[in-house]
Amino acid sequence: MKKIIVIGSGYGGVTAAALLQKSGCSVTLLEAAVEWGGCAGKFQRKKFVFPVGATLAMGLNNESIHGKINRFLGINLEAFRLSTVMDVTVDNETINYFSNKETFLQMWKKKLPASADKIEAFFREVWHLSTILQKHMKEFPVIYPHTYQETTALLRGMSWSSLRLLPLRNKSFKYMLDKHDLTEEYMLREFLDNVLMDSLQTTSDKCSLLMGAAALDIYHEDAWYIEGGHYRLIEKMIESIKDNGGQVLKPRKAEDVQKKGKTWIVKDHRGNVHEADHVILNMPLSNAEGLLSEKDRLSLKKKLRHAASEREQWGAFSLYFGIKDVMGENAPLFQQFSAAANSWSESSHFFVSASAPEDRHRAPEGHRSLTISTHVDIKNWSTKEMYDQKSSNLKQQIKNRLEKAYPGFQDSVVYEITGGPSAWERFTSRKNGGVGGFPQIPGYALTNAVSHRSGIKGLWICGDTVFPGAGSIGAASSGVHTARSILKRRIL
After folding, report:
1. Which run of H or of E encompasses 90?
2. Rg, C-alpha atoms of the chain
3. Which residues 6+ apart lie within 8 Å of 391 measured at CB?
4. 453 touches 481 (CB < 8 A)
5. For residue 351, how many other CB atoms are within 10 A of its CB?
6. What is the model's pTM?
């Protein structure tokens, strides 16, 4: 029986741990925090439960990534499909991201009638590219494949249409906007920038074309609200590990990871020593390096070491509100506000996730729980003076905008808490508070992404900074890749 230690209970780690334990391995999962889930976790204040970061759910259809994992593990989840995924407000204009594609196109026809034909052609081509990609994604491909299992997974998703993707693999999304003569269409660009920044950590002019196509399409095909939030799915996977005989421990911070002969030794902050055949690090690459000895760090793949030191991540400023419900039952559960015209910089938009009116997992009756976040440049939050000033300004800016959208909002606040990059570092242990994985630009995405293989036998890395990248789907996929590599066979 293979002995596995998984460090970190975010989507990548908990997915790998649950799949391996279900498949007959002996798994010990260590989590440094008091809650499971990392950026997909939660915390509670008074009667309110707040999702830490991840809120909008993707990939829960039966044949989608989370759907396949849940079915294999026997997990049932309280969730519902979204007919309107989110509202994106650009200046004073609200764009409804309808899940139904024809309704979505009709909305654009009303918003921008002069460009309607070009916009329709643009989205239909984007959706077509995504349809080709989806065939691959369902097989959990790895680029580049190293084993028979990975090669067959890639081949199962292949068709003649796949050949069309090859010349596009290093193109940015700007290529598609230029092709359809939409580069100067301001409202469309702002809409795309908001959505792609939230899902892929970059804007339409820099985003990988293929990753962008997949991200935009999945909002139509597979967007969900999970009762309570992502943490509910994380906790169900934790229960799966325990039910199948695995061990899950928190708070247990791993402080040292070393290889002695063929055995991996992990020491935690309580002085406990854990031994295993394999260690899985579910954490950003920069964190992973810090756990290893100098000898092992130098043995890591060169690409991994360079990515850990050279690729930058965004930070996040978050606001959490417990409010009396002044929003009304028809208010969007997910909403983005764009705050800066024709200029993309830190804090130029913010994303609002509200609990559903009937969701008692997050708020008492007549109340709502809100998680709000905006991207920030970590370098601009490096001193206490900068931190305090930016935090105060952003909080007021966001409150004012929500007051405009929902009169009476500021008086409805029962509880509030803020968190900038240092809070993210403190509570999720992510170095410098970097979140969301690397921006999915052509230089970082697909064939240029970092593999789950560390370069050291028995040491694996999963999470949002390795292939395929950001979000719960990307992180969970990396967990599947890792479990499959350890088992040396197909799982899903």
Report:
1. strand 84-90
2. 22
3. 317, 418, 420
4. no
5. 23
6. 0.95
Residues 451, 135: Cα–Cα separation, whole Å: 21
Residue 187: how many other CB atoms lie within 10 Å: 18
Please say if the pLDDT value at position 358 is more than 80: yes
Residue whose C-alpha is closest to residue 295's, from 260, 347, 245: 260
Q: pLDDT tens digits for 43-92?
A: 999 899 999 987 899 999 998 999 999 999 999 999 999 999 999 998 88
Pick from 307, 322, 420, 312: which is nearest to 364 by CA? 322
User: What single DSSP character describes residue 346?
Assistant: T
Beta strand ranges found along 63-197 (DSSP E): 79-81, 84-90, 93-98
Instruction: Count the alpha carbons within 13 Å of 478 in the hemisphere toward its beta carbon.
Output: 32
* DSSP code per residue over 151-175: HHHHHHT--GGGGGGGGGTT-BTHH
Order of strands across the sheet that contains 79-81: 57-58, 223-226, 79-81
As given in the structure block, the two tokens for residue 415 are 């509880």
Distance of alpha carbon 2 from alpha carbon 307, whole angstroms: 30
pLDDT higher than 90, residue 339: no
Cis peptide before 439 (omega within 30 of 0): no
Q: Which two tokens stand for residue 260?
A: 């002695």
Q: Is the pLDDT of residue 8 over 80?
A: yes
Q: What is the pLDDT of residue 342?
A: 46
Q: Is the previous residue joined to 144 through a cis bond, with omega within 30 degrees of 0?
A: yes
The DSSP symbol for 32 reads S
Helix, strand, coil proportions of the chain in percent (round to 5)? Answer: 40, 25, 35
Q: Is the pLDDT of residue 341 over 60?
A: no
- Beta pairing partners, 26: 3
Write out pLDDT tens, residues 224-247.
Answer: 999 999 999 999 999 999 999 999
**Tens of pLDDT, residues 143-199:** 888 888 888 888 888 888 888 888 999 999 999 999 999 999 999 999 999 999 999
The answer to whether the beta carbons of residues 89 and 194 sit under 8 Å apart is: no
What does the alpha-carbon distance between residue 101 and residue 99 come to, in Å, rounded to a whole number? Answer: 6
Contact 277, 270 (CB under 8 A): no
Cα–Cα distance for residue pair 195/228, rounded to 1 Å: 23
Whether residue 216 contacts residue 52, with contact meaning beta carbons closer than 8 Å, is answered with no
- What per-residue confidence (pLDDT) applies to 134? 87
The residue type at 475: A
Phi first, then psi, for residue 350 (nearest 5°) are: -145, 150
